[in-house]
Design goal:
Blueprint (H helix, E strand, L loop, with lengths): L1 E9 L4 H13 L4 E6 L3 E3 L10 E10 L3 H14 L15 E7 L4 E2 L4 E2 L8 H10 L11 H6 L7 E2 L3
Antiparallel strand pairs: 1-4, 1-5, 2-4, 3-4, 3-8, 6-7
Bound molecules: 7,8-dihydro-7,7-dimethyl-6-hydroxypterin.
7,8-dihydro-7,7-dimethyl-6-hydroxypterin (ROI) binds next to strand 4.
């Protein structure tokens, strides 16, 4: 089994519900077990500001799937949520499920780059990740906890209603 960390994000179509549904859907992926889910966070958009605020979370799972099979399963969940893949790389989205880390593996294939390229620059990834994996060390030796302590929180907060 490999421990993978997945980043979840949404800023359209009831984002809190999207994230809860996505967590349930990830729990149903074959040959895998979700072991930990972070708090649900509220975050300001990174990229164009003319889009709604985001809801973000991170989960840990153990899996026997390959990284690409896991990516297929995650993309199927995104598609089922109604995500349309168009030319909006930095725009609003119903659901984004990113493989942040896949064990200690470094993957640079056409479909998948792991660790996720934005991991170290994104407060909405680093803080939830540090919440559930205090002692995590990235493949390059950087500590998630120190990265999370040194990044600007940019309004990131645990979501409550
Ligand atoms: N900004 C925030 N706050 N959260 C996200 O999940 C997110 N995802 C994205 C971009 C557009 C980069 N901005 C984001 O893909």
């Amino acid at each position: 089994m490999i421990t993978a960390y997945i980043g979840l994000g949404s800023n359209l179509s009831d984002p809190v519900m999207q994230i809860h549904q996505a967590i349930t859907a990830v729990q149903d992926i074959d040959d895998s077990n979700v072991t930990c889910v972070s708090s649900i966070y509220f975050s300001r958009p990174m990229g164009p500001q003319d889009q709604p605020d985001y809801i973000n979370a991170v989960l840990a799972m153990e899996t026997n799937l390959s990284a690409l099979a896991l990516l297929d399963s995650l993309q199927a969940i995104e598609n089922k949520a109604g995500r349309v893949r168009k030319d909006n790389r930095w725009g609003a989205r119903i659901l984004d499920l990113d493989i942040l880390l896949f064990g200690n593996e470094v993957i640079n294939s056409q479909r998948l780059i792991v660790p996720h390229y934005g991991l170290k620059q994104r407060e909405f990834v680093l803080l939830p990740l540090a919440e559930i994996a205090h002692d995590l060390i990235l493949p390059d030796g950087d500590k998630v906890l120190s990265l999370s302590q040194n990044i600007d929180k940019n309004g990131l907060n645990v979501y409550s209603n």
